[in-house]
Please model this.
Amino acid sequence: MEPQVILIDQYETFTLRASERLNDVADRHYRTSCLSSDISLLEKDDSPLKQASVLILPSQWKTHPNIANQTFDSSILFWDEQEGPPLRFIGIRELDRTIQNALEGHRCEAAPPKIIRHMGCHLSFSEEVSRRLTRQVIKQEMSLGHRLVYLPIKPLYRMEDSFQRGPKQTLGELLCQLALGDIPEAKSVGEWLYLHESGYFTFRLPDRADDLIAADMNAVKKLIHLLHEYAQSSSEITTVWLDTEGMYLDRLLQIAKLCDHLYMDVPKGESSAAEVARRELSIFMAQLPATCAILELPE
Model:
């Protein structure tokens, strides 16, 4: 019989989707299901929990006597109570690895093989965090000797660095070309780039401030596919950074699904805004594919 893993969280839409995706990647090593986050149910009947090999629970359950005294033999994990990023934000592949380790009876995992991630974006809920993150990513990639391609998908009036516009081969022209179905070869992308004074490569930008943030989404996705192929085929390690500051969540989700990784800003505090942001974050996370890793903000 497959070991049972039970997920319990106040964001039940998130746990339902996470459970479905974990069952897809578990390869029959275990079976995941969800239970209600109403703690009173634990007091009435905790038999479903006792049957589980691994439990992932809300952090507020930690002090409940049945949990604190560990009256059953399950391995217990909490969504927000371990070293490193919270479990809800580490991505399905990493969560699967954490569960596999718990099933084997140990919490620590050997360092995973080094993965080259060619394309990333970010979800930040404040302008300050967004801009700090972009500066840190650019600095980090360049300090590693990587070739960085910077693509701002945001209004031009939010740009911090200087930028060029025209007179030809602008990013706007490339988007129009892609919208018409005229897709250039990946190796020709370099012809549209120039070396910025800060050391990264970027595009000449359109004339109108909102051309990028409001561009046809199909054309943007074609551009992202093209850049990803360009980075993968480059003779040197190349990273594409998509600066998605201020983008609507539904559009950002379409972009994040095409990326290798996503930096995520987890709002702190107990304000209504922070609570809404964390809820949206959980929903957003649940819709990401396993191919998109969730990374902590770099220090």
Q: What stands out?
A: The CA atoms of residues 147 and 238 lie 5 Å apart.
